[in-house]
Write a structure and sequence with these properties.
This protein has about 325 residues and is an alpha/beta fold. Helices cover about 40% and strands about 15% of the residues.
Length: about 325
């Protein structure tokens, strides 16, 4: 089975499924496995030093002959080195986020790189289109990690975008983990989906086993969008979050929140497995994630769910 959409034609992939480029999780093993399974695997450059990104790209090319991408947060301090690296190594796709898409889109496209930009609102989607990106990833606040301040849900965001005649592909992201959810997104104008949390819970992701085991136990309401004064991020309600909440209750300043956050908390939690002091980023859909499987198994199950959903008529 092949699913033909604007996104698959743009990226040259078999299925309209993008793996989110998550920090401390999305290395060459995960990205190459997703690409080999017919989706678009993505390296998470936000937690990589420039030399680590180069190594990851080289490793990914050795593990797959299919297209893959690199996610680059535009607020990254060594952004110029990352941009130079993806151009030098002819990475097929770059996904930009957390910044102005005008900064590098034209330069990347001039080297034949497809550029998708992550947005959290209609306003930013229109700006991304004006910047001449190749596609837009519309991410609702259900998603894990950093989110928009608007708190648009994926459902609302897709409807807002659907009313405008975007000619470039729209990719739905945030709260998606099943084939039926992808079908629903298609009906709302999307031509593909991006999943982060679902791919974090695979054997190939580099998230710590402690973190994965914790995610398996999460239920509804166990994550929350917080730290909007710094950069909105969806977190698991652990001891670190309790410390954040305590500061809020005391009317803490932005500087006090920044001091508590410090540096390296996401690495401590996601990569090193410190479930107490770590910043544990995961999406709301974690309430549905109770197993850790291979990427191949995930993709097979997801596509079967999609096929079954296309045959159901529950309305």
């Amino acid at each position: 089975m092949k699913i033909d959409t604007k996104l698959t034609r743009l990226l040259g992939i078999k299925y309209p499924i993008i793996q989110g480029g998550m920090v401390w999780t999305s290395g060459a093993d995960l990205a190459s496995a997703v690409s080999n399974a017919g989706g678009l695997g993505v390296l998470g450059a936000g937690s990589m030093y420039p030399e680590q990104l180069r190594e990851a790209i080289i490793n990914c090319k050795a593990k797959t002959t299919f297209p893959f991408g690199v996610n680059i947060p535009l607020m990254y301090p060594d952004i110029e080195e990352h941009i130079t690296t993806v151009i030098e190594h002819k990475v097929p796709v770059v996904i930009t986020s957390a910044g102005n898409p005008n900064l590098f889109t034209k330069r990347l496209r001039s080297h034949g790189i497809k550029v998708l930009h992550v947005v959290s609102s209609l306003k930013f989607a229109l700006k991304a289109e004006q910047a001449e990106v190749n596609g837009i990833i519309a991410e609702g606040f259900e998603a894990g990690g950093h989110n928009g301040r608007e708190e648009n849900t994926t459902l609302v965001l897709l409807q807002l975008l659907y009313r405008h005649p975007f000619k470039i592909p729209i990719v739905a992201a945030g709260g998606i983990a099943t084939g039926s959810a992808m079908l629903a997104c298609f009906h709302m104008g999307a031509s593909g989906v991006q999943m982060g949390s679902r791919f974090l819970m695979t054997k190939e992701s580099t998230a710590h086993q402690n973190f994965k085991d914790l995610v398996k136990s999460l239920g509804e309401g166990d994550t929350i969008l917080s730290l909007k004064e710094l950069a909105p991020v969806r977190l698991i309600k652990n001891e670190f979050y309790a410390s954040v909440l305590e500061l809020y209750q005391k009317g803490a300043s932005t500087e006090e929140l920044r001091s508590l956050l410090g540096r390296g908390r996401a690495k401590k939690g996601i990569y090193e497995g410190d479930l107490v002091e770590g910043e544990l980023e995961i999406g709301q859909i974690s309430a549905l994630l109770d197993d850790i499987v291979s990427v191949e198994t995930l993709m097979t199950t997801f596509l079967k769910e999609y096929e079954l959903a296309t045959q159901k008529k529950n309305f």
